[in-house]
Amino acid sequence: QVQLVESGGGLVQPGGSLRLSCAASGSIFSINFMGWYRQAPGKQRELVAIITSSGGANYADSVKGRFTISRDNAKNTSYLQMNSLKPEDTAIYYCYAAGSSRYWGQGTQVTVSS
Length: 114
Known about the structure:
By secondary structure, the protein is mainly β. Helices cover 0% and strands 55% of the residues.
């Protein structure tokens, strides 16, 4: 089993920045991918960004050039740096890890509003 704990959400004005963190514990040797999904009210959960154990990353088109995913394997932690935030980025952000199984964090709220 893998446990994921997110932190770093909150309220920010449009154009601002936030950094989300996701700390993994448990059977972390089984993790290949770590990433972030988000779910806005009334919408389906969607992929934001994902990173492999070797550092290769992919992003949703809507966040390319604004968000950066990174991973510290020594700390078993992934990060999502979010810049130039827009109101449409408002959602609950979920940390995700995958290997032999898939794991989810509890979610952290990000609200972009003036």
